[in-house]
Design a protein that fits this description.
- About 85% of the residues lie in helices and about 0% in strands.
- The protein is elongated, with a radius of gyration of 14 Å.
- It has one domain (about 1-35).
- By secondary structure, it is mainly alpha-helical.
- It comes from Mustela putorius furo.
Length: about 35
């Protein structure tokens, strides 16, 4: 049970960060460049 709770916490942190940080045009361009190269 403890391991699952810790894993869920880490997953929630990542989700919260993504939701709180709206991707700017610069971020989108950087992601596109990463995918190409």
């Amino acid at each position: 049970m403890g391991e699952i709770a810790g894993f869920d916490k880490a997953k929630l942190k990542k989700t919260e960060t993504r939701e709180n940080t709206l991707p700017t045009k610069e971020t989108i361009e950087q992601e596109k460049r990463r995918e190409i190269s």
